[in-house]
Amino acid sequence: MSEAHYFIGIPLSPTLQQSLSSIQNEIAPYVSYKKWTNHQDFHITLTFLGGVAENKVEELRDRMSHLRQVRSAFSLPLKGVGTFGERDQPRVLWAGVEKVEALVQLYTDVSEECERAGYPKERRSYSPHITLAKKWKGDQQLHKPLEEVVEFEETYFVDHFSLFRIHPNRNPMYEEVEKFKLEEEA
């Protein structure tokens, strides 16, 4: 049996999930994507782990539990929509996440703990976002700038992060395995 895949990320509240789902509906007539993210799967990735042996999951839990004692909850500005990839046929549609210091510190700590546990370090620079859709389909091109279609600006209070298991053939496909509550703001 192959190993299940996992990642560590910040889950979003049902209210924010609904807000982002509304944005998907507003943008859908202007874009052509094969896969729209289920609103229950919206999250902000901290680190992707890939395949994790069942006996290593407990070690990850222990390492992340330690982090929650040294990091505080924080407010996270969310703003705008954008894309990754080619301008006319972008591969990913995302909602913006401001790269505030508290988020960068949490990302760095999580990444370092995962690296100590034997998981490879991410080579790309950290670009926090919330994936709304991916895999452009067909020959249709994006003609209208997304900022003309929808405006998005919210502040989200991050009081925990989580270990998620990926179930590729389910919808929603991300299962929150463990929550790691952050210290209260000072």
From TrEMBL:
<comment type="function">
    <text>Hydrolyzes RNA 2',3'-cyclic phosphodiester to an RNA 2'-phosphomonoester.</text>
</comment>
<dbReference type="Pfam" id="PF13563">
    <property type="entry name" value="2_5_RNA_ligase2"/>
</dbReference>
<comment type="similarity">
    <text>Belongs to the 2H phosphoesterase superfamily. ThpR family.</text>
</comment>
<dbReference type="GO" id="GO:0008664">
    <property type="term" value="F:RNA 2',3'-cyclic 3'-phosphodiesterase activity"/>
</dbReference>
<feature type="short sequence motif" description="HXTX 1">
    <location>
        <begin position="43"/>
        <end position="46"/>
    </location>
</feature>
<dbReference type="InterPro" id="IPR009097">
    <property type="entry name" value="Cyclic_Pdiesterase"/>
</dbReference>
<feature type="active site" description="Proton donor">
    <location>
        <position position="43"/>
    </location>
</feature>
<feature type="active site" description="Proton acceptor">
    <location>
        <position position="129"/>
    </location>
</feature>
<dbReference type="InterPro" id="IPR004175">
    <property type="entry name" value="RNA_CPDase"/>
</dbReference>
<dbReference type="GO" id="GO:0004113">
    <property type="term" value="F:2',3'-cyclic-nucleotide 3'-phosphodiesterase activity"/>
</dbReference>
<keyword id="KW-0378">Hydrolase</keyword>
<protein>
    <recommendedName>
        <fullName>RNA 2',3'-cyclic phosphodiesterase</fullName>
        <ecNumber>3.1.4.58</ecNumber>
    </recommendedName>
</protein>
<feature type="short sequence motif" description="HXTX 2">
    <location>
        <begin position="129"/>
        <end position="132"/>
    </location>
</feature>
<dbReference type="GO" id="GO:0016874">
    <property type="term" value="F:ligase activity"/>
</dbReference>
<keyword id="KW-0436">Ligase</keyword>
